[in-house]
Amino acid sequence: MHVAFVHRRGFGQFAALAHHLVQAGNEVTLVTETVDQRIPSVRVVRHRAEPGPRVHAQMARHLSAPDHHVRIGHRVAETFDAMAGLGQIPDVVLGHIGWGSMMFVKDVLPRVAALGYCEFFYRAEGADVGFAPDDKPDSETRKRLRLRNIAQLLSLEAIDGGISPTNWQRSLYPADAQQRIEVCHEGIDTRRFRPDPAASLRLPDGRVLKAGDPVITFVARDLEPYRGFPQVLEAAQKVVRRHPDALFVFVGGDGVSYGAPPPGGGSWKEHLLASLDLPPERAIFPGVVAHSVLRQLFQISAAHLYLTYPFVLSWSVLEAMACGALVIGSDTTPVQEVIRSGRNGLLVPFFDTDALAEAILGVLERPSDFRALRAAARRTVEQRFRQDDCLARQLMLIGNATRKTIAISNEMHIA
Q: Which residue from 43, 117, 309, 311 lies 20 to 30 Å from 130 (Cα-Cα)?
């Protein structure tokens, strides 16, 4: 089978599936603006990148983002039209619907099955917007968010079905659209991400971290409010006062992936540290690290902190759980879908830094009390997010959409 993936930034959520399809002998094409990684034997077709949203003199308010998405949709459609002219017509197209990439695929390939990755539908209530106490969306914000969903709504109407990674993310979509969206996570490689009591990691300053040390980890693409970085920093300050040996490792970049930059610009890290009394030797900021280093940190972690606005669920929290980390998370809806407090992790109110600090201190002072929760966290990922199982479901959805048999790698281990 010939499977084409569409994503602006490379393989994104489709990397494991693309790798498996190639191993099984299928033909795979990636249509993209930029390439985040190379997978041998995958044909990469890059379309011209569109500049960011721009406002024209005669453009109605808040139409800059939808205009940008339409232009991206045209680029992808032109790419598939050119491929079709060369006889390179896929059996199925699987693409992210958030940026307009899938908007016109069925118009140029009407007889090709098309499935959309449905990651996040914007809402003025019940999700990230309005979650912070000082965030009161006005009517202009509400209108902007409604228009922000144009590309997704048009894509959903055209394609044959959708895939969302979690039930909560699926629930954000309109009720009639939810009926056409299946829940299927990309999966976690539980053979790679697993507990290791002998794990250790040497820091650039020569210090060696190992399992059993009072190491608290925090991981985000960027260190910013959407992932609770301000609350974690404040809690760290409180923990260190009572447990001076505690060491916090904050993994992430200094940019802004979601939300707004801090007042005055710069990074949230610099902005927040200026007002806190956190001893520099108790906080490590390694920036963005290799995936192998991340795995070691999860295996070493005495407590892994994962706070998030009601937003997309990060792979990192599932990878940490697969490594047997004790996750202390926020009691927000995406996290509640995976973690039951007191059963496979601990949950605290997002903005309650006292509760977060007390939970961390409890884990540091009584580590043996939480062994069962660590084991349960690992079981949760094995039972619900094991990569081979998720891949099998993705392949089934592709097979159902195309009504064709798809080659499956003999490396898969399906429970």
A: 117
* Chain centroid, CA 322 distance in Å: 16
Q: Give residues with Cβ within 8 angstroms of 60, minimum separation 6.
A: none
31-57 per-position pLDDT tens digit: 999 988 889 999 999 998 888 888 877
Distance CA 379, CA 345 (A): 12
- Measured CA to CA, the distance from residue 324 to residue 301 in angstroms comes to 9
2-187+386-402 domain in CATH 3.40.1110.10? no
Say how many CA atoms lie within 13 Å of 157 toward its Cβ.
10
DSSP-derived letter for residue 226 is G
DSSP state of 302: S
Distance from C-alpha of 330 to C-alpha of 347, rounded to nearest angstrom: 5
For residue 314 the two structure tokens come to 């990060």
Residue in the block written with tokens 């904050």: 250
User: In sequence order, what are the residues at sequence separation of 6 or more whose Cβ sits closer than 8 angstroms to the Cβ of residue 139?
Assistant: none
For residue 278, count other CB atoms closer than 10 A to its CB. Answer: 18
Task: Classify strands 181-183 and 161-164 as parallel, antiparallel or unpaired.
Answer: parallel
Token duo for residue 310? 């009601």
- Single out the residue of 388, 406, 386, 387 nearest to residue 396, CA to CA: 406
Question: pLDDT tens, 134-190?
Answer: 999 999 999 999 999 999 999 999 999 999 999 999 999 999 999 999 999 999 999
pLDDT tens for residues 320-370?
999 999 999 999 999 999 999 999 999 999 999 999 999 999 999 999 999
How many CA atoms lie within 13 Å of 131's alpha carbon, on the beta-carbon side? 23
Name the token pair of 226.
């959407």
- d(Cα 200, Cα 182) in Å, to the nearest integer? 40
Q: What is the pTM of this model?
A: 0.94
200-202 and 181-183: which strand pairing? unpaired
Domain positions in the chain: 2-187+386-402, 200-384
**Domain spanning 200-384: which superfamily?**
Glycogen Phosphorylase B; (3.40.50.2000)
CB count in 10 Å sphere of residue 98: 22
Answer yes or no: are the C-beta atoms of 4 and 18 closer than 8 Å: no
- Burial class, 108, CB count within 10 angstroms (exposed 0-12 / middle 13-18 / buried 19+): middle
